[in-house]
Amino acid sequence: MKQSQMLIPTLKEDPADAEIQSHKLLTRAGYIRQIAAGIYSFLPIGQRVLRKVEAIVREEMEKVGAHEMMMPALEPSELWKETGRWTTFGSELMRLHDRNDREFALGATHEEVITSLVRHEVKSYKQLPLTVFQIQNKFRDEARPRFGLLRGREFLMKDAYSFNESYESLDETYQKMFDAYSNIFRRLGLNFRAVIADSGAMGGKDTHEFMVLSEVGEDVIAYSDTSRYAANIEMAPVVATYEKTAEEPRAMEKIETPGQKTMQQVADYLGHGLEQGLKAILFQVDEEFVLVVTRGDHEVNDVKLKNLFDADIVELASEEDTKRLLGAGFGSLGPVAVGEEVRVVADHAVNALVNVSCGANEEGYHYTNVTPGQDFEVEEYADLRFIKEGDPSPDGEGTIKFARGIEVGHVFKLGEFYSERMNATFLNDQGKANTMIMGSYGIGVSRTLAAIVEQYHDERGITWPANVAPYQVHLLSMNPKKEDQKELADQLYDTLLEAGIEVLYDDRKERAGVKFADSDLFGIPVRVTVGKRASEGIVEVKERTTGEQNELSHDEIVGYVKNWYSA
């Protein structure tokens, strides 16, 4: 393709709103353009990369017996209401009404749609197992779109769904998909980890996220320093043990603490460490109010709280409800003398504490010398905190360290979450109706493209892995006004195309510096420059990543390129 005929608008400066390298470089190099917050167009060169990522995904899906289809992006609310997710999915679901005031959602995911389809079309165990997938734009009303393609409101996703007759069969499908995902991200050249995760609004229990390691990742991975254990920080269980001190409990005392709101302020004011204070936070868990108590240096893990109560919705109680139920606002809360309307649960670490401080449920006051079991009662102790670096690894090997990651894929064992609610059944070999067992498997295709750039770039631009680069060769004619250069460049362009090599030909009447800068931005792995030695049939070949340069005869170029890509 001749560059003079393409829409590839490059920029010299980073976009003002771009915070991370993938957003900066994909915009500067003319791969994407923002239309509105979180909504992007893929320009021709960006579309080529996107299609190459899609091709790898398709190949690996087909290898494990998944068949491609396409479902509508417009989904009737009735299907979502069957599963209850019309309410529980939250404000990210984009909802709209048609001219007849019928409710719809723009597809954020397609579990309901595919389950509705399969329940009508699949009737017998002979039709199972079945796995289908699609590659389609998805829509989510992100409260704060940011980081370019990493957090958008419209994005390209591969979503697959499996239907099995048993949990054993689901396990087999899940493992095949897990392995396929591993192959996809390896083929894309990514440094990634598969981590234990939470299913969130998707439902189901067992699930893994595929995380590309990156400092700009919004997720924290907890991993063992000596084993292969890795989990999203939300899901990593705490296996630390706590021994109660031999200190005798003292009489609880109420202390005035004017203006002291945070745990650190209270600890400094009372002259003790954070671990000698109690943190109390009021949550609304479905229809109940629950006061969660942790040690002052620990953070409440709301995912663990949700799983403890098997709840649909967990959110912080409002300030109004907090003051009504406990008599004070955040910063002065504690578990002493809590009324019957509020359930009290606590992290395991709290049970080992003696003579600690906590809020007195009165503005500007705290208690000291508080001991669980003596001064307040806990309905249930559970693992309710986030794991910390240095904690023992849950698998018993080594200690926990943290890394940041970009989620690019997620596999779920949904079980009967959707099929039971939507009455998706089949007749087994004895003619008995059984509920289908489901799995769901997603890859953020456009998000993966951005994650690749986060791992493959330098100070000059993008450095694409060979199998997803938009072109294999960037051919530059330094001075098209000179006949010998134009003639050799045109000849090379035709020769490369005839050899089946993808080539972007910079035939523009631009300065050499502009062409070299754009070429570095684009990140095409091999650059061929036709310059001052054109009359001799000699060109310069440069590898984008290593910077290695060679002068070759024009008739050696095809062999060089083919050897480079086959190495």
UniProtKB/TrEMBL annotation:
Transmembrane segments: none annotated. One of its GO terms (cellular component) is cytosol. InterPro entries: aa-tRNA-synt_IIb, aa-tRNA-synth_II, aa-tRNA-synth_II/BPL/LPL, Anticodon-bd, Anticodon-bd_dom_sf, Pro-tRNA-ligase_IIa, Pro-tRNA-synth_IIa_bac-type, Pro-tRNA-Synthase_IIa_type1. It is found in: Cytoplasm. GO terms for biological process: prolyl-tRNA aminoacylation. It catalyses: tRNA(Pro) + L-proline + ATP = L-prolyl-tRNA(Pro) + AMP + diphosphate. Its EC number is 6.1.1.15. The keyword Nucleotide-binding applies. It is an enzyme of class 6 (ligase). Gene3D superfamilies: Anticodon-binding domain, Bira Bifunctional Protein, Domain 2, YbaK/aminoacyl-tRNA synthetase-associated domain. GO terms for molecular function: aminoacyl-tRNA deacylase activity; ATP binding; catalytic activity, acting on a protein; proline-tRNA ligase activity; transferase activity. Keywords: Aminoacyl-tRNA synthetase, ATP-binding, Cytoplasm, Ligase, Nucleotide-binding, Protein biosynthesis. Pfam families: HGTP_anticodon, tRNA-synt_2b, tRNA_edit. Residues 38-465 form the Aminoacyl-transfer RNA synthetases class-II family profile domain. SUPFAM superfamilies: Class II aaRS ABD-related, Class II aaRS and biotin synthetases, YbaK/ProRS associated domain. HAMAP family: Pro_tRNA_synth_type1. Consists of three domains: the N-terminal catalytic domain, the editing domain and the C-terminal anticodon-binding domain. Catalyzes the attachment of proline to tRNA(Pro) in a two-step reaction: proline is first activated by ATP to form Pro-AMP and then transferred to the acceptor end of tRNA(Pro). As ProRS can inadvertently accommodate and process non-cognate amino acids such as alanine and cysteine, to avoid such errors it has two additional distinct editing activities against alanine. One activity is designated as 'pretransfer' editing and involves the tRNA(Pro)-independent hydrolysis of activated Ala-AMP. Homodimer. Belongs to the class-II aminoacyl-tRNA synthetase family. ProS type 1 subfamily. This is Proline--tRNA ligase. It comes from Halobacillus salinus. The gene is proS.
